[in-house]
């Protein structure tokens, strides 16, 4: 014991000498750093191989003498340290808390060091972006006027059969941002060129040879039997202008013309020669990659009009810029406030807007798991799964299309409910407001069967309908059947899983699983009662020192949702007749006794955190990368503007579009 104390004392002396040197180095090169503060308050627990939570601050400070903000692992460690200090999770209970001035010292140093560069805001290097499979399919459909996805029908019902294209494209994995459009994640995954070629050939085989297609593809009402060089140039230029999103060059046009000419010379008919020409354009890197000009600058500069049109189109519709966007970019008017507002409104009312719900929201909330192959049974996706998925899909579409408040995600007086689930929810909880074909007809018509067709053919499936929430159980996302099911085990609820999900997805506080977590059975075994309640089990588990800190935040959130069983059905007692307890105390001391009160407390206490989380998620999705400390200046500005706009989703979209991260690019680190 004495030897350990001497060893620890010696280590502190060495650390102290190191800190003196570090403090001088850092103060000379990077301004006053919180080195002395960390030395005095943190190193007892955070030094060496046995450092608490694996955070060795002594080693971290040593690395910081030659601090490189491009060292992302180092930056991420400092992000965790700063968050723990500002959230007052550190120092832990039982230790003297840091004063407000001490916390500000840490925050100010972090801001100078990691948020600003040479005292100035910046946006970091802009990554090269490749089309995702979803964007590729949308783009080809809109460019060629073909349909590559299957409709609903009586044979497939809710279990929509994957199309040929969807079957052959490989699985995409989300990146650090949580989305599959993450540029860095796409860059690390193989480019399935052979599968793309097969998809292109399949799509070209479905191109119709009628007047509408000719106008769309080539800008002509009809084709002459023989094309002059001028006509061929006009056709190639028109197609490539759309296919390459306004970035076609004379060299691209010459290459396409040469392919057509060679095909005709070889005896190929005109239609096949034109398809060969289009195929050439669709296999160019400029089609698969969203290439932008690169001026090798380490400071932000404004992107071109066509590049901006491309960013806007793929952000809001996950597809290529249509003719109206390209025309505005051609004219150089897209950035004018009136034109830009007109285009944003138009795109948010375009059927392709469903991408915001189908890609952004589904991957953020993870309700796309309901229709993933891994979740399907032997007979495919169940009617219940499809209905719960569409309830979430339509909810988020309504949120964006009707410019609803971001806070409606937590609680709302409206929602979409499927008649398949109405009995589960309880009819007394809702009042019908709008039949489906008034709210989602354009989306259904764009991709699915509607009206008489739907009623005559699709006899099994019905989309959800917009409902007014009249009861006190539902509204928002966190008490939806979809989320309650996704955050439960197959046969039982999991307050811990639900609490962790709510912290991460809604509050934006992602907790890392600690090492050496004792099993829950250990807590059950410590209880004298033969049949303990979930609340008693959790209480025993959280009394273990290694679990206490996190579970004080997690458990109240999960317990507050215990009135919902694993399927999302309301309950007041468990199967063993024990009463359900949904009461708890949040970390700040606020009490609640029901799911409705929990949601009210969340909106009262964590409103800013909820809105900032939404902003960060949508900004990350829009720019195709995870956010870094240097994005905080933009997030802070967006938050201020969104508050002024009563938290409307449309305000978040408009402010993101106006942000430096969206309007500009930076080619390398400053």
Class derived from helix and strand content: mainly alpha
Q: Tally of extended strands?
A: 7
Shape: globular
What number of structural domains do the residues give? 4
* Main pleated sheet: 3 strands, antiparallel
Distance between the termini: 51 Å
Task: Report the sheet-strand fraction.
Answer: under 5%
Uncertain spans = 1-31, 152-159, 449-460
Radius of gyration: 28 Å
Q: How many helices in DSSP terms?
A: 33
- Helical content (DSSP H or I, runs of 4+): 40-55%
Mean pLDDT: 85
Structure description:
Strand 5 (584-585) and strand 6 form a beta hairpin. With 670 residues, the chain is mainly alpha-helical. Helix 11 crosses helix 12 (250-265). It has four domains: 2-115, no CATH class; 133-288, no CATH class; 354-469, no CATH class; 484-605, no CATH class. Strands 2-4-3 form a three-stranded antiparallel beta sheet. Strands 1-7 form a two-stranded antiparallel ribbon. The chain has helices at 2-30, 35-41, 57-63, 72-86, 100-115, 133-144, 164-168, 183-188, 193-205, 211-218, 229-243, 250-265, 270-282, 285-288, 305-316, 323-331, 337-347, 354-365, 383-401, 419-425, 436-439, 441-447, 451-457, 481-486, 495-506, 520-525, 534-542, 545-559, 595-605, 607-623, 632-644, 649-657, 660-663; strands at residues 301-302, 414-417, 430-434, 465-469, 584-585, 591-592, 664-665. 38% of the residues are buried. The protein is built from 33 helices and seven strands.
């Amino acid at each position: 014991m004495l030897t350990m104390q001497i060893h620890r004392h010696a280590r502190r002396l060495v650390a102290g000498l190191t800190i003196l040197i570090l403090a001088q180095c850092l103060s000379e090169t990077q301004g006053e750093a919180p080195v002395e503060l960390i030395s005095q308050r943190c190193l007892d627990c955070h030094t060496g191989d046995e450092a608490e939570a694996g955070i060795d601050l002594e080693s971290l400070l040593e690395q910081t003498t030659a601090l490189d903000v491009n060292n992302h692992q180092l930056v991420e460690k400092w992000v965790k340290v700063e968050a723990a200090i500002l959230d007052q999770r550190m120092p832990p209970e039982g230790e003297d808390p840091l004063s407000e001035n001490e916390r500000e010292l840490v925050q100010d140093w972090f801001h100078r060091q990691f948020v600003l560069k040479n005292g100035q805001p910046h946006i970091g290097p802009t990554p090269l972006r490749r089309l995702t499979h979803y964007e590729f399919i949308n783009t080809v459909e809109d460019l060629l006027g073909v349909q590559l996805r299957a409709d609903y029908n009586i044979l497939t019902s809710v279990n929509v059969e994957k199309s040929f294209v969807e079957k052959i494209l490989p699985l995409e994995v989300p990146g650090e941002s949580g989305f599959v459009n993450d540029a860095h994640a796409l860059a690390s995954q193989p480019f399935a060129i052979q599968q793309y070629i097969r998809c292109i050939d399949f799509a070209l085989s479905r191109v119709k040879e009628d007047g509408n297609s000719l106008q769309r593809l080539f800008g002509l009402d009809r084709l002459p039997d023989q094309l002059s060089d001028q006509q061929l140039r006009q056709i190639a230029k028109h197609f490539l202008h759309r296919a390459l999103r306004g970035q076609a060059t004379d060299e691209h046009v010459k290459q396409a013309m040469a392919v057509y000419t060679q095909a005709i010379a070889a005896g190929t008919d005109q239609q096949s020669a034109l398809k060969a020409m289009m195929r050439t354009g669709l296999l160019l890197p400029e089609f698969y990659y969203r290439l932008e000009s690169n001026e090798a600058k380490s400071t932000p500069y404004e992107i071109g009009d066509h590049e901006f049109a491309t960013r806007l189109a793929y952000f809001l519709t996950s597809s290529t810029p249509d003719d109206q966007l390209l025309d505005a970019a051609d004219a150089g008017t897209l950035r004018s406030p009136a034109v830009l507002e007109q285009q944003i409104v138009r795109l948010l009312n375009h059927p392709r807007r469903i991408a915001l719900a189908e890609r952004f929201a589904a991957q953020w909330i993870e309700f796309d798991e309901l229709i993933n192959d891994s979740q399907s049974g032997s007979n495919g996706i169940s009617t219940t799964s499809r209905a719960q998925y569409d309830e979430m899909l339509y909810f988020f579409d309504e949120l964006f299309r009707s410019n609803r408040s971001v806070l409606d995600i937590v609680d709302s007086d409206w929602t979409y409910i499927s008649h398949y689930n109405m009995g589960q929810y309880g009819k007394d909880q809702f009042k019908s407001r709008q039949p489906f074909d008034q709210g989602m007809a354009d989306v259904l018509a764009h991709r699915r069967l509607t009206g008489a067709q739907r009623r005559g053919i699709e006899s099994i499936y019905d989309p959800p309908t917009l409902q007014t929430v009249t009861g006190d159980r539902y509204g928002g996302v966190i008490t939806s059947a979809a989320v309650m099911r996704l955050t439960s085990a197959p046969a039982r609820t999991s307050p811990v899983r639900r609490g962790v999900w709510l912290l991460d997805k809604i509050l934006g506080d992602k907790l890392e699983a600690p090492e050496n977590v004792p099993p829950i059975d250990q807590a059950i075994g410590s209880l004298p009662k033969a049949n303990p309640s979930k609340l008693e089990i959790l209480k025993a588990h959280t009394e273990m020192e290694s679990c206490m800190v996190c579970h004080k935040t997690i458990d109240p959130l999960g317990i507050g949702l215990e009135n919902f069983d694993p399927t999302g059905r309301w309950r007041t007692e468990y199967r063993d007749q024990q009463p359900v307890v949904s009461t708890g105390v949040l970390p700040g001391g606020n009490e609640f006794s029901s799911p409705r009160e929990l949601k009210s407390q969340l909106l009262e206490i964590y409103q800013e955190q909820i809105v900032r989380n939404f902003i960060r998620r949508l900004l990350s999705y829009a720019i195709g990368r995870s956010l870094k400390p240097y994005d905080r200046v933009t997030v802070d500005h967006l938050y201020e503007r969104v508050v002024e706009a009563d938290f409307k989703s449309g305000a978040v979209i408009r402010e993101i579009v106006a942000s430096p991260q969206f309007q500009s690019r930076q080619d390398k680190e400053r």
